[in-house]
Specification:
The chain is an alpha/beta fold. Helices cover about 45% and strands about 15% of the residues. It is globular, with a radius of gyration of 28 Å. About 40% of the residues are buried.
Length: about 525
């Protein structure tokens, strides 16, 4: 299946499923998790069928007992979930109309959970809330023959597509479970997670882990052979979403539920090779009187005095890293300039030399809020490099985006590649830059070719007005320890030298004179009318 065919299928499935919800009594939140469960079930069945065919070819044959029966371990070895017969898609599709489909699906999910401890309590079991006709039509939608024998990576993309659409339709509040793909891909591209322990202490639906797997696949590796995923999530629903998302993508990970402010479940301080997250912004109400907060080893630079938890998160991300670890995370824009105790903590972090890249992102990248944000990147290997520890790349991307709609912006693949290439040049690696130049030349993509070559004509990093600048810690200190890129990169000269500004300004002045005269005449007329009324 080509990329265009997959996009068309995603769109068709979503429209059909969304039309059903629009005509039901269910909210987007009530509807989303069970529909994702159906996608999970459909995908699990596909993997089961493919694995079963391969297992049957290799089963040993005993002279008297015949072919050895298949076991659950056979399916585990084939990276598939063993499905009890009552939980298989073809069994569900063939149920008679008289069946209680809602309760049957609930029981099918329970049967799968009973086989796998990691999925225990994870799968949705609220199908009895759905009208029978709605469930039957949903099953027919996902019984589309285009889904038969579809590989896992394509099914994973469908699952991500539905997560994305549910987030846009209001099934989440405040970005709780879904980080827009543009931001996730930017973070993964910049920290380049290719080995060891990968941790997300605000894991949401595990989008960071899935994108890490995609990144490794593009490099020719399997995630299971290169990294180990650990996650923590506060809410029960999001923990379930994350585990189900990992299962759909064929990924293993240790994801647990727990409030990261008070309970460090995995105890990974100083052990992580990569940390990535989109934590909730500007959280207040954290009880700093608790011993688990006051004496937290994850707060080496101290407790901020204000009620905002941003600088708790920032310190967590720094503290989880080992001596060569990298972190990338989303943060409220205000965190880059925050004052008082937060400024003092920021100064200490800057003084370590670990701050690597700071990125400003414009408005409308999130589905639930239109506020801008910042991406922070730490690299603790810099702390021991006397040259690099004094450098920070400031990257202002507020004017880099694609307009998806009046409410949503994102990055194109070319945007993502170009951003990655700029960071590579900053780090002294022009491999991706040269690859992109060849790709753009071969494809005739003159606009992207010109965008890169006009800014970096020699294939080496250089500061670009309005876009990027490498600053040292003395310059940051002179700017009150601000980590906002816009304070450093400057403003690009947007003057169009072919435009007659002088003539146009004259026209504007004349129009303004006319408008002023009309305004004065209208004011006089209103006053005269008021006088006639004795007011």
């Amino acid at each position: 299946m080509t990329g265009d065919q997959l996009k068309a299928l995603e769109g068709r499935l979503w429209k059909a499923a969304d039309d059903l919800r629009a005509n039901s009594k269910l909210t987007a939140t009530e509807y989303s998790f069970p529909v994702l469960g159906i996608i999970f079930l459909r995908h699990a069945h596909n993997r089961f069928v493919i694995a079963k065919e391969e297992i049957e070819k290799t089963l040993p044959v005993h002279p008297t007992r015949g072919v050895r029966p298949m076991t659950k371990n056979d399916f585990l070895d084939a990276k598939a979930i063993f499905l009890p017969e009552d939980s298989r898609w073809d069994t569900i599709v063939d149920l008679p109309d008289s069946s209680d489909l809602g309760e049957y699906l609930n029981e099918a999910m329970r049967n799968i959970e009973a086989e796998y401890e990691d999925l225990l309590g994870v799968l949705p079991k609220s199908y009895n809330l759905f009208e029978k006709d709605l469930l039957q039509r949903l099953i027919r939608i996902f019984n589309d023959e285009a889904l038969d024998h579809m590989p896992g990576d394509a099914f994973g993309q469908i699952y991500e597509y539905f997560l994305n659409k549910f987030a846009m339709s209001g099934a989440q509040e405040g970005g709780e479970f879904f980080t827009p793909p543009s931001l996730v891909k930017t973070i993964v591209n910049i920290i380049e997670p290719d080995h060891g322990i990968v941790f997300d202490p605000a894991v949401g639906s595990a989008g960071m882990f899935v994108q890490t797997a995609h990144f490794l696949e593009e490099e020719g590796f399997e995630a299971s052979n290169k990294v180990t995923f650990y996650g923590q999530e506060k809410t029960d629903t999001n923990t379930k979403l994350a585990k189900m998302n990992m299962a759909v993508h064929g990924l293993d990970g240790d994801i647990v539920q727990g409030n990261t402010f008070y309970d460090d479940k995995h105890e990974l301080v100083g052990k992580c090779d990569y940390v990535m997250a989109n934590p909730p912004f500007n959280v207040d109400g954290v009880d700093k009187s608790k011993d688990s907060v006051k004496n937290d080893a994850r707060l080496p630079f101290g407790l901020p005095n204000n009620d905002n938890a941003n600088y708790l998160w920032i310190q967590y991300f720094y503290s989880y890293l080992n001596e060569t670890g990298r972190a990338g995370f989303v943060m409220a824009s205000s965190g880059s300039d925050a004052g008082h105790s937060e400024k003092l903590i920021r100064k200490e972090i800057i003084d370590t030399g670990a701050v690597d890249v700071m990125v400003s992102i414009g408005t409308k990248f999130f589905y639930s809020v239109s506020l801008p944000c910042a991406l922070w990147f730490f690299d603790r290997a810099k702390e021991k490099d006397e040259v690099r520890k004094d450098q920070v790349l400031m990257l202002d991307l507020r004017n880099v985006y694609r307009k998806v709609s009046s409410k949503i912006h994102d990055f194109t693949q070319a945007h993502l590649d170009n951003i990655h290439a700029i960071v590579g040049l900053y780090r002294g690696d022009n491999t991706l830059f040269n690859k992109l130049i060849k790709t753009y030349n071969a494809s005739g993509n003159e606009s992207e070719l010109e965008w890169l070559t006009s800014r970096f004509p020699d294939g080496v990093y250089t500061d670009v007005l309005g876009l990027c600048k490498v600053v040292n810690r003395a310059e940051i200190a002179d700017n009150d320890y601000s980590l906002t890129p816009g304070r450093y990169v400057g403003v690009k000269d947007e003057v169009d030298h072919d435009f007659d500004y002088e003539t146009e300004m004259g026209i504007i002045k004349e129009e303004l004179k006319i408008l002023n005269k009309e305004a004065n005449a209208l004011a006089e007329k209103i006053q005269a009318n008021l006088n006639e009324l004795g007011l």
